[in-house]
Design a protein that fits this description.
698 residues; alpha+beta; four-stranded mixed beta sheet; four-stranded antiparallel beta sheet
């Protein structure tokens, strides 16, 4: 669209805006997880609508359209134009792991060691980075045409939000719902921090399984085990067989000597051992496998951690392997096993290996002390609001996914071994006693009451999982815990628009925290949109070369064309197969509207006065008016049920088919006639119809 085009149709307030992209560093652009909140309120109708602080539209390099802001903007504009008082509050979260990793990378390139400059200076560097790159996402939302309240832009590390985070931690700790424990966690050896199950990407890879003979003490016999991780044998504390497996009955209770290690361990019975898998006998390494850990707990086995935080062999292992990287140790162990005749064979297999979604490195189960939230207790009310239909999923089948996770929920590891984030408000006394308070002064007061004297306290260096603060978004951004008109007016919101990939990460967290601290569900409806894939239905991926950059598409085809395309293809339960041809089709739709506006201008159809329907006489006007009423009915039903494709389809058929192809053609003879009364009606009514079309499109 040219400037002349816009000038020609200016009177109709049609803004098909050309968007220009700008250069940016993809890694830094992708670093911060994004959150934006939407809500609406009509006091007269006592109805609230539209709520979504979702943070991943721009963060997923595999799917740049992942969080479809067009839907949120459609909802907010629809309710705003229907006299709702609306709030779409934009913002970002601090993406602790990703942001720290990028800043560390930047410092390394500048030959700066974060450990040398210390925590305080490092955090200053992160804030500098945030100032440089933090507004990129907000600017992208503006380029997409999102009608947010930009004056309320929020950030999870803002002072008021940080106060809310600290208060929630302290309150949950005092209720016994947050505690510290030593457990097996997912450990990223590159980032050197614990991560959640949800941040682990289980990838199917070509791998090998190795068969190793363990000599049974006092006999000439061996028991053979199969493993994909022979390096963990340095930390074995038992061999497990199934109680029903007759092959091993005579071995139970005997000891074996771990090859090349020399340590003796028992053969035990446990139901976890599957007679149909491998050899039926399992090596048990409680410190480095979640299932083995459970076996160890049931059988009171010793737990021997043989890895450092960096994934190297530590001093608990055989001396000549200490200091080796885990994969180098694997090679040497296999070589030694073969030399000493303990190696049986190896087989090629396909199996799933856990990778960190940030570091792209293989994750290790690692025994460490962490902070946990009692997610089981917090989930009780969160499940009830969905069970009772106070909160509903659209499409409904996503509620099954929600319950599948919630009914099997594990304690939530909320601590991260980072510097960037909300530092945990816990201090330790000289004997390790923990004092939790919102301030250091409060912690010192608690310590003095405990020790009966002043003591030096050391603050816990860990920070909270980013999703902990993001989970507070629906109410913390509205000023909670302080009471104010925004909190009273806009909480709870009505609908969350989000992707299925963060139902557990974020949707469940918000419901849990909302129910715990406000005893109200944060939103009435949850609309789960589909993934945007390429035209062949494949997931967009940089490695595949099939990523479509929305900024490039905006520049080529306009924001309206892209937005309309996404809405038109958003059938519930179906992924969007996006192609440029589809966008071109809806760009042509914009052109069709422009041409219709030019036709009206050419014929001086510029009467914007209200229409008195009782004065309408022309059959063609009565016909198109009834068509318009049908469209309004259809789009209202579509909006209520979040069927954006039906909304778009109804508009498209009406505008292109009924109005442009039929109505304007039938209008030409009237405009070319000598009947001044009919011409006046035609001019007034055709402009009235176009004004309504543009309102619907807006």
């Amino acid at each position: 669209m040219t400037a002349k085009d816009l000038e020609d149709i200016d009177a109709y307030n049609l803004y098909v805006v050309l968007m220009k992209s700008h250069a940016y560093d993809t890694e830094e652009y992708d670093a911060m997880a994004r959150v934006e909140g939407v809500s609406a309120h009509n006091p007269k109708l006592n109805h609230r609508c539209v709520g979504d602080p979702n943070n991943q539209y721009f963060i997923s390099s595999a799917s740049p359209f992942g969080k479809l802001f067009s839907f949120k903007d459609l909802l907010i504009r629809f309710h705003r134009m229907n006299n709702f008082e609306t709030l779409w509050q934009p913002g970002t979260d601090h993406a602790g792991i990703a942001t720290q990793a990028l800043v560390e990378k930047k410092l390394t390139s500048e030959k700066i060691d974060k450990n040398e400059i210390g925590r305080e200076k490092f955090i200053e560097k992160v804030w500098e980075w945030k100032e440089q790159y933090g507004d990129i996402i907000i600017n992208q939302l503006k380029k997409l045409g999102c009608s947010c309240d930009w004056s309320r832009n929020a950030f999870t590390m803002d002072e008021n939000l940080s106060k809310s985070v600290i208060k929630v931690f302290v309150d949950l700790y005092n209720k016994g719902l947050i505690y510290k424990d030593k457990k097996l966690v997912n450990w990223d050896t590159v980032l050197k921090t614990a991560i959640s199950d949800l941040e682990v990407d289980q990838r199917e890879v070509n791998s090998k399984i190795y068969y190793i003979r363990y000599p049974i003490d006092g006999t000439e016999e061996f028991i053979t085990i199969a493993t994909t991780r022979p390096e963990t044998m340095l930390g074995d504390t038992a061999i497990a067989v199934n109680p029903k497996d007759e092959r091993f009955k005579s071995f139970v209770g005997k000891t074996v000597t771990i090859p090349i290690v020399g340590r003796k361990i028992k053969i035990i019975e446990d139901d976890y051992a599957d007679p149909e898998q491998g050899t039926g006998a399992l090596k048990i390494t409680p410190a480095h496998d979640f299932n083995d850990y459970d076996v160890g707990q049931r059988n009171n086995l010793e737990i021997i951690n043989i890895f450092t935080e960096a994934g190297k062999i530590n001093e608990n292992a055989t001396e000549h392997y200490v200091g080796l990287d885990r994969f180098e140790a694997r090679k040497r162990i296999l070589k030694e096993l073969k030399e000493k005749d303990f190696f049986v064979k190896e087989e090629n297999i396909k199996n799933k290996v856990p990778y960190g979604d940030r570091s792209n490195s293989i994750i290790e189960p690692f025994l460490t002390e962490q902070w946990f939230a009692d997610a089981g207790e917090l989930s009780i009310k969160a499940k009830e609001v969905v069970n009772s239909k106070k909160t509903n999923f659209f499409p409904e089948n996503w509620s099954k996914t929600y319950f599948q996770w919630m009914n099997n929920i594990e304690p939530w590891c909320i601590s991260r071994q980072l510097w960037w984030g909300h530092q945990i408000p816990a201090w330790y006394g000289p004997d390790g006693e923990i004092f939790v308070d919102e301030t250091e002064e409060g912690a010192n007061k608690l310590a003095k009451e405990h020790y009966k004297k002043d003591v030096e306290l050391i603050r816990d260096p860990d920070v909270l999982d980013t999703w902990f603060s993001s989970g507070l978004w629906p109410f913390a951004t509205l000023g909670w815990p302080e009471k104010n008109e925004y909190l009273e007016k806009f909480y709870p919101t009505s609908v969350l628009v989000t992707g299925f990939d963060i139902i557990f990460f974020w949707v469940a967290r918000m419901i849990m925290f909302g129910m715990e601290f406000l005893n109200k569900e944060p939103f009435k409806d949850i609309y789960v949109h589909a993934l945007v894939r390429d035209e062949k239905g494949q997931k967009m991926s940089k490695s595949k070369g099939n990523v479509m950059d929305p900024l490039d598409l905006l520049e080529k085809y306009s924001a309206d064309s892209l937005r309309f395309t996404l809405c038109a293809m958003a059938a519930q339960g179906r992924d969007i197969k996006l192609s440029e041809e589809r966008i071109i089709g809806y760009r042509n739709f914009s052109t069709k509207i422009i041409n219709a506006c030019k036709f009206l201008k050419l014929n001086d159809c510029y009467n914007f006065q209200d229409i008195d329907f009782s004065d309408i006489r022309l059959p063609i006007n009565i016909w198109i008016l009834n068509k318009l009423i049908d469209v309004y009915d259809n789009i209202e039903k579509a909006m209520i049920n979040y069927k954006f494709n039906e909304y778009s389809d109804s508009i498209y058929k009406f505008v292109w088919g009924d109005y442009c192809d039929w109505y304007l053609e039938f209008l030409k003879p009237v405009l070319n006639s000598k009947n001044k009364i009919e011409i006046k009606e035609a001019k007034a009514f055709s402009s009235f119809m176009m004004a309504n079309i543009l309102k619907i499109l807006h």
